[in-house]
Design a protein that fits this description.
Distance between the termini: 23 Å
CATH architecture of the largest domain: 3-Layer(aba) Sandwich
CATH superfamily of the largest domain: Response regulator
Radius of gyration: 19 Å
Number of helices: 8
Strand content: 15-25%
Structural class: alpha/beta
Number of domains: 2
Helix content: 40-55%
Shape: globular
Number of strands: 11
Largest sheet: 5 strands, parallel
Order of helices and strands: EHEHEHEHEHEEEEHHHEE
Strand order of the largest sheet: 2-1-3-4-5
CATH topology of the largest domain: Rossmann fold
């Protein structure tokens, strides 16, 4: 069950979908505001700010990507996208614009509730200062800069550690090469070849993955970039 008062804003122009999600998420303990369009969403954001937004990209009245862009300009709220099966390019662009996760229609309300819980836990953890990240078989210590894989210390260069630490800090969030150049190298593709990121991902995989060609942790998201899978 969700913590009392956790508010979810659902933006979907399908009334049946809004009703189903309002009932199911309400039963899971969330306070749900369900609106049909961007104008209503902006009003809800200003009057009763939510803790997370569920946004349908296929709105009839306004491009959902425009609403996502507005959200990213004005808030740091986590966003889960709802998309159709044929909307792969919109999903990719949505992730690049900063969405935290997505679900492809049709989906079960239970799956959405599980995704909401996961995203909220992840964003709440990232808001608090941490000294290390621990996952099954992997520990990344930000203080000592140690990387421990399956009980063994792994030697890394400074930039290899910085790249891994940045990715593990945002599990499942996808970053493209330009974002990683900016965040890890304080650079850009205008000054540094984006292939640098590809090479460093390869190096880190060789050091932490049991099979670098079939990575468990550092995943490639085709057409977008990379993410850490805990």
């Amino acid at each position: 069950m969700a913590e009392n008062g956790t508010r979810i804003l659902v933006v979907d122009d399908d009334g049946d979908v809004r009703n189903v999600l309002a009932r199911s998420l309400g039963a899971d303990g969330y306070v749900v505001d369900a609106v049909p369009d961007g104008a209503s969403a902006r009003q809800a954001l200003s009057s009763t700010p939510p803790d997370l937004v569920v946004l349908d990209l296929g709105l009839a009245s306004e491009d959902g990507l425009d609403i996502l862009t507005h959200l990213r300009r004005t808030t740091e709220l986590p966003v889960i996208l709802l998309t159709g099966r044929g909307d792969e390019q919109d999903r990719i662009l949505g992730l690049k614009l900063g969405a935290d996760d997505y679900l492809v229609k049709p989906f079960s309300p239970g799956e959405l509730s599980a995704r909401i819980g996961s995203v909220l836990r992840r964003t709440q953890r990232s808001a608090a200062p941490v000294s290390s990240y621990e996952f099954p078989d992997l520990r990344v210590d930000l203080i000592t800069r140690d990387v421990i894989v399956r009980g063994d210390h792994v030697q890394m260069t400074a930039k290899e550690f910085d790249l891994l630490a940045f990715l593990v800090a945002s599990p499942r969030q996808v970053f493209d090469r330009e974002q990683l150049l900016q965040q890890v190298w304080s650079s850009s593709s205008e000054w540094q070849d984006s292939a640098t990121v590809t090479e460093y991902i390869r190096r880190v995989r060789r050091k932490i993955e049991a099979d670098a060609d079939n990575p468990r942790w550092l995943k490639t998201v085709r057409g977008v970039g990379y993410r850490f899978e805990p």
